[in-house]
Amino acid sequence: MPGEAGLSRLSPFGVHTAQRSVAFGHPQSRNGARMLVDFRRQDQLLRVLGPLPARGTVVGVEQEWCVHGESGRVDYRALHDRSTNGLVRLFPGDPAAVMTEAGTVLTVDGWEAETVTQPLVLGPGTLDDLDAALFQARSDLHERLRPLVQDVRLEGWSTHVSVCVDDDHVIAVARRLRERCGLSLALLLGVGVSGVLIRPRRHRLEVCLDHLDGPTLHRAVVAWVGLVLMCSDTSRAAGWRSLPRAGTTWAPARERFGHHCPLEGTGGARSATRTWNEARRYAAAAGLPTASVDRLLMRRDVDQPRSVNPFGSHPRAPDLASRTRPFGPAHARWLTWDLVAWECGDPGVMAVVPMHANHLFVAALDAGRLDSPIKDRLTRHRTVPRDSMNKRRSA
Does residue 210 sit in helix, strand or coil? Predict the structure, then answer.
């Protein structure tokens, strides 16, 4: 998974739903994370941008692909640099990750190629947007490999689905899923022989599955969203409270922190139905169509057609083009799916902006409304060259 930043490890998919601020800091500081200044306390900057919009719950999908050619399977590690030549590497947590012009992220995971969608806000049309994003990602990868591999063919290896969860709760949510849902997860998510693997990550909860596509992926996304949102509910009426504790044996994940169940038994349709009866309302409240999971468990047609997003296809790639302003250059220096960091000035300060508000920051930057605040911050916090600092100390 690319893009967990070097400041700490910033999540590709999740973002605190209450995060509506922009931060400024100095890229040459010893600890950039502590030098960031909360934008909410900067009255001048608040007057310029105004309150940033809240970001709803988001879902994202990663897919890993085996690359095959005329002579058999190919190690994608030997092809990645050439296939992504010319694309900027802005993800500090994964030097191999690049973002294409369409907003798809391509990276390497062992022998496999990995494509990652941008996070999609839950609501009507999410599955349509997800289809478009996944198709674009696979097509982009295939087109980049065609000149390098004779008779190139992509074979799905695995699929990871993530739903954003606050850091303060992600461990507890994973524990509730493990204790209350048990092996019914297997039936709801369409898990294969590899079992169920749940991994708490920064700002998100991830489930690792065999390769899924089309209707089976839709069903897994809807079920996973409903389950995660149910177990994130801390109210007295939370659906998970009515579920009995599942007597399922889980083991620590072999790679990274997480919970793995090898599926040595079966969860049973009755247990899965009861679990889904509680989780269904959460998926429906998020605007997702639940008919696919309903039909799987209840064996009856449910009149609930998928909604079509009237606003079009998958999200556009963020505007990260460099700019020149009166205070100096402005460059995008690193990004995750949560945040983008702009270096303003040379040497300058780092403006760390929530990704979903990047278009507002760029519009204010282009209109000149940030020139004066950034000039003022550069003047008050001008970085002293290290050579000059050493001369002062020796004197």
Answer: strand
